[in-house]
Amino acid sequence: MPKSPSHKKAQSKAAGRGGKTETKLKGSRKRLDAITKSGKTATEVERSGTATGLEKAAQRLKMRRSQRKVLQVPQTDMGKAVEAMKKKGVKGTVKNMTGTKRRSV
User: 24 is in which domain, residue-wise?
Assistant: First the structure.
């Protein structure tokens, strides 16, 4: 399924200058949405709002060995995203699409 323009914009903003989008995870066919240039921050953008989609995104973050893991979701889905991160055992940050609100897990 093609990515929406807002999803692409969120990916490129999360990657920052010199960062990469749609990077492959080691030992897997899966891809992570964005990695900063230094590799310290891994970001996964999940706009679906479904529990399974959020859990899959959390699992992709868990596979990456970055210092900071960020799950970026619409503000209405922040509670569900926190639960998905806890369920998968991922420590990191859940933030809304604009970055104005964030919750640590």
Answer: 5-104
